[in-house]
Design a protein that fits this description.
The complex is a heterodimer of chains A (147) and B (101). In chain A, 54% of the residues lie in helices and 12% in strands. Chain A is mainly alpha-helical and 147 residues long. Chain A has a two-stranded antiparallel sheet with strand order 1-2. In chain A, helix 3 packs across helix 4. The termini of chain A are far apart. Chain B has one domain: Beta-Lactamase, CATH 3.30.450. Chain B contains four helices and three strands; from the N terminus they run H-E-E-H-H-H-E. A two-stranded antiparallel sheet of chain B has the order 1-2. Chain B is globular. Classes of the chains: A mainly alpha (147), B alpha+beta (101). At the A-B interface, strand 1 and strand 2 of A face strand 1, helix 2, helix 4 and strand 3 of B. Strand 2 of chain A pairs antiparallel with strand 1 of chain B.
């Protein structure tokens, strides 16, 4: 229940009684609790879906789809930075402050062909672990293709 | 003019009587001088609002004198100081299901 009680005055301003008004808010409270639970579930589900869409299933690092999206944003950011810097310093320096490294595992096909795909998968994971240990946390590691 | 006053009176009466919100008025001695259907049914457990007239919470809740005293004290304070209590939330055992709501 949600209740208000207010004094009632007569013409001279003297308090002669009291008015009570209240409402059963049980249903509303229950709905609020349900809504809160649903919101938490949707947030968790969204995080899960984002993860599915952005990540590579085998290695857990970002996938090609995410790379394409992220690359555009990063490139734009670097170009904006370049423009502002050149304006500030009145230069026409064409050097972008931007780095991209593509890594390919040589003869990876041989590993798959010789030891099978399970071993190949394991090698991929190990290589990725080694890369992870040697990059900065702000760097973004993506799997662009098979290896 | 009296026609308009009559309409206003009917409107007010119908609104208060049939409101799903509970509405009551007590006098200076905390006796009920008005209660609507929702209040009679939901909180007092009465079939008709008329049954509550001129009664206090002490009369209506013989088994709950402590609660009645608490309400009485609160109402007397409101009427003495003129300070209202607004949007206070509280739990009450439902008169229909017995559950606390």
């Amino acid at each position: 229940m949600s209740e208000s009680k207010l004094p009632i005055c007569d013409e001279s301003g003297e308090i002669v009684g009291l008015l009570g008004i209240g409402r059963d808010i049980t249903v509303r409270r229950e709905a609020e609790v349900l809504l809160e639970q649903a919101t938490i579930e949707i947030k968790a589900l969204n995080a899960h879906l984002t993860n599915l869409v952005d990540r590579d299933g085998l290695t857990g690092i970002y996938n090609r789809r995410f790379f394409n999206e992220y690359f555009e944003i990063e490139l734009q950011r670097a170009m904006n930075f370049l423009k502002h810097r050149n304006q500030l310093e009145s230069t026409t320096d064409p050097d972008l402050n931007f780095g991209l490294a593509m890594i390919d595992i040589d003869y990876f096909k041989h590993i798959n062909d010789t030891y099978g795909h399970l071993v190949g998968d394991d090698v991929l994971k190990q290589v990725i672990n080694i890369i992870k240990q040697n990059i900065f946390s702000r760097d973004v590691l993506c799997r662009y293709g098979g290896d | 003019m009296s026609h308009l006053i009559h309409i206003e009176k009917v409107l007010l009466q119908e609104l208060t009587e049939n409101s799903p919100d509970y509405i009551f008025i007590k006098n200076r001695q905390s006796q009920f001088v008005f209660t609507n259907k929702a209040h009679a049914k939901m909180l007092l457990g009465l079939d008709s609002p008329q049954e509550a007239l001129n009664k206090t919470d002490f009369d209506l809740f013989p088994g709950k004198q402590e609660d009645a005293k608490r309400f009485f004290d609160e109402e007397q304070t409101i009427m003495k100081t003129g300070k209202p209590v607004l949007h206070r939330e509280w739990m009450v055992p439902s008169t229909t299901t017995g559950e606390t709501v």
